[in-house]
Protein: Uricase
Organism: Kineosphaera limosa NBRC 100340
Amino acid sequence: MSSNVILTKNQYGKAENRVVRVTRDTDRHEIIDLNVTSQLRGDFAGAHLQGDNGHVVATDTQKNTIFAFARDHIDSPEQLLLKLANHFTSEFDWVTGGRWQAEQYGWSRIDDNDHCFYRSAPEIRTAVLVRDGDKDALISGFYDLTVMKTTQSGFAGFPRDQYTTLAETDDRIMATDISTRWRYNSTDVDFNASYDSIKATIMTAFTDHYSRALQETLYKMAQQVLAKHSEVDEIKFSCPNKHHFLSDLSFCDLDNPGEVFYAADRPYGLIEATFTREGAQSADEAWVGIAGFC
Ligand SMILES: O=c1[nH]c(=O)c2[nH]c(=O)[nH]c2[nH]1
């Protein structure tokens, strides 16, 4: 058995740079609030195997670059990631790719005030760019968008065995925290418009049908996103089924016609699925490192 150690995959950089950009050209300020990670890939064998840092663009330099680029206008998290990738791969010829990611937190104006804001968007917007030579994979998404429908959901027709106690129902609460990521087939996209439209499409698709299972609802959400958005080739969902159990009020002689529920926080069903446009190129490598999806 050989005891030789071979360096295989490696990447490194500065994680979770919290960048808040205030645009104050006029009295009416704008803010963009990001958490940005930069990781480089390429020829870094010297650092690992010989202690030679000649190729190691310091993580501190990567951090500084992110903040320096924030001095320019930030159009969208995706545009910032593309700019960082272009910079590092063109400035240092041994940097052949990397992985850049951002989360964005949403803020709204208090009373339409010019410079006072509150954290508003419930969901966290995400973006990941993976560059490998001349190949880019760009995956955007969001998590923690909590939604509920109070009827028009059921669950029946499932197999029964000696362990099955669940009653069939044609009227239940369905609630979930939507986590989703979608892969663009281009980097030439109006990312903010696309994000807003995909989020709206997902929410509308949650409302517009009688759901026979959360699985069916995920499919309908994916179907509508892929039908409306030719710039998207693949979409994944990871959604807990946040169970709401009808509270039994018979102990005090009260009925409960679907009005009082116990919201259980665990255990929860966990429904995950990937939907791909038929005929689209797959990009499984790009998903490595994105946890919590199948
Ligand atoms: O929408 C659902 N999908 C399931 O797979 C499932 N399983 C379960 O017990 N309840 C539900 N609900």
Summary: The helical segments are 45-50, 59-71, 77-91, 191-207, 214-228, 284-287.
